[in-house]
Hints:
The chain contains three helices and five strands; from the N terminus they run βαβαββαβ. By secondary structure, the chain is an alpha/beta fold. It has one domain (about 15-100): Rossmann fold, CATH 3.40.50. Strands 3-2-1-4-5 form a five-stranded parallel beta sheet, sandwiched between helices. The two termini are about 15 Å apart.
Amino acid sequence: MNFRYPIFLDLKGKKCLVAGEGYEVAFKVKNLVEASANVTYVNPRAEASIEALAAAGLLHWERREYIESDLEGCFLVLTDREDNADIFRACEARRILCNSVDDEYSTVV
């Protein structure tokens, strides 16, 4: 059995990357901003709430697809793309905490 351990993190000032546009992404981005994380959102499109946060200077939005160099200096990565495996494996290799939204992969600790 793959037990998932709940965790609380101090994200203040820590670089957090969010990639993709699943139904939970806007909520997660908002929570990262509220936790005072240094948020980068990577996706060609964004929901209105994410666009507003970017316009207010509360996060950095890269209007393109994810590339592996986006992981440089990251503490935490959240990904909700059609295929999260490449990001998950790259985070695992770098020992970056990663939450991928799918059933096959789990959080790296």
